[in-house]
Amino acid sequence: MASGVRPAPKDLVASVRDLGSSSGSGDAEKEAVVVNGIEVESLPFATKADGSADPSRRVLTEEKGYKHLGFAFSERKKWLVLTSIFIVQISMNFNAAIYANAVPGMKKTFGISASKARLGQFIFLVMYAFGCELWAPWSEELGRFCVLQWSLGLVNLWQIPCALAPSFWMVFAFRALGGLSSAGGSVTLGMVADMWEPADQQYAVAFVVLSSVAGSVVAPIAGGFITQYLAWTWVFWISLIFGAVAQAIHAFVPETRAPVMLAKQAKLLRKQGHEVYAEQELAGSLRKRIDFREAFKLMWRPYQFLLTEPIVGFLSLLSGFSDALIFVGLESFGLVLAKWNFDHVQVGLAFIGLMVGYVIAYVLYMWDYKKQRAIMQGDTANMVPERRLRLLLWLVALEPIGLFGFAWTSLGPPAVHWIALLIFTALIGIANFAIYMATIDYMVAAYGPYSASATGGNGFCRDFLAGIAALYATPFYTSIAKGTRWQLTVPSLILSAIALVGTIPVYYFYIRGEDARNKSKYAKQLADARAEKRDERQEAITRASSRHTTPAQSRRTTPATSRRGSLEVAQTTYQRSLVGKARGYDGMPPSRAGSVKGMATVSESAELDRTESSA
């Protein structure tokens, strides 16, 4: 090599030569420049505002940049990311639930009633319900990492004035800000969709769901020790310490949001002298991309789904009721266990029964996924969305059974041993996990690109109804049949009856779910559109899967339909960003959080626009 000439780094630039046909016809050599594993010359041209091609700029699409997306992370890296998210999610739900242990102390310090003190629990959970919907679209536009860091930082910041508050209303105000600042599962579950193919996601989703429900159990266990041995302000200091640790761990997590990752790669390509842009960059600056009228419409959609989509409405109410039971338990456990003279620590440890139930349900779902995965290999007919409710048919019945048993144990000694209460709470825990897991899984399968709106309604119901439960739980258990031996039994019997009625939609949608989806303004037409695009994208998906299959996702373990679905989901990820219709990118139907034209063709966009307008 000539002196003074430095070779290009092997990991950045490589030359790939096409020597022509094997006949040696002497065709001119063709050279394709590959930068960071991306064949620049194969990238499509950008589109001008008038719809014509722009040869001066190329577009880095998700298919071409697949190896740089979260889908291509190694399994080890994915699970390291997920483990950090597990800790983050526990810290969020820990913060939501542990407040109940500060109520007795605040009651004495501020000279207020217990009912008034519980308003801090109520306002946090209600604002949490809205906060999740506010943060999620921004995470899809700006990236998961920065949004979660901002969320965690703000939540941690608001703990300080709560701990130092001279009055209850200051605690109330900053608890409201804390709830509104909490990003919640809408972002963490989004990270799962960033890294796993649809047919591979269940293990990861179940792991995140476990972290979500576990946080509400870890809180009373730790809170019992705080109530008994420390001042009530330590509820907030402990939450701050836990939140700071979670934020520090998350600081080492890479970005997973596809458009943001592609924009980063496009910038690296431009530094190498190639005019390559990500679709997010071509849509213009953040200010140009945002259409606030459209954004408001998209933020309203989860609530619209709750009111107009029977699948979302009924299953979300069941899910919300199930989560509210846990917050009822935060108040009622102490009343019931007082019959066995349990102190604060022992009452907190009694929540281990719920945790055991969650772990049992998690293991059952792992077994079920393995079984269903084997069926899906050769029988695509079994891939109907209602298949996701199959295990729930058995487990949902444990909720009314567990509540009925809890009512019986409320009679107390000597006829009943306290261990019976833990056994029945474990049954409730199994049902709670199964309801949350299965309803999310079913909504994702039924609504496709609109699943964010469907699951958003589910999450809203869980947080909102849990917040209301914080207000009525104690009066509910102290006002009915007051002064009789049935005082603690009747309320649980009422909850058991409500739970029994709430399970009916699960069986109905398992049997008649297809009819319900066919009547939906979104589910049926989106399913048809997804089927039409499947063959068109097969070649690109097969090529991507052959290059990036990991040992855990080999062709022996992963069906072709999984790969086909993965890039369909990848295609829709950019549609779910908080953006307006930028110049030259009209025609993309608004999803839960955006309407910039991403991977879809003009014809697909127009068809989906007709779907949206008819809805």
UniProtKB/TrEMBL annotation:
Entry superkingdom: Eukaryota
InterPro entries registered for this protein in UniProt: MFS (IPR011701), MFS_dom (IPR020846), MFS_trans_sf (IPR036259)
Single GO MF descriptor: transmembrane transporter activity
Coiled-coil boundaries: none
Region ranges (Disordered): 528-615
Biased composition, class Basic and acidic residues, residue ranges: 528-540
Subcellular location: Membrane
Keywords associated with the record: Membrane, Transmembrane, Transmembrane helix
Composition skew (Polar residues), residue ranges: 543-576
Transmembrane segments: 79-99, 119-138, 172-192, 204-226, 232-253, 305-327, 347-367, 391-409, 415-439, 460-480, 492-511
Listed GO CC annotations: plasma membrane
Domain called Major facilitator superfamily (MFS) profile: residue spans: 81-514
A Pfam family that the UniProt record links to this protein: MFS_1
Membrane-related topology note: Multi-pass membrane protein
Name of the protein: Major facilitator superfamily (MFS) profile domain-containing protein
Species the sequence originates in: Friedmanniomyces simplex
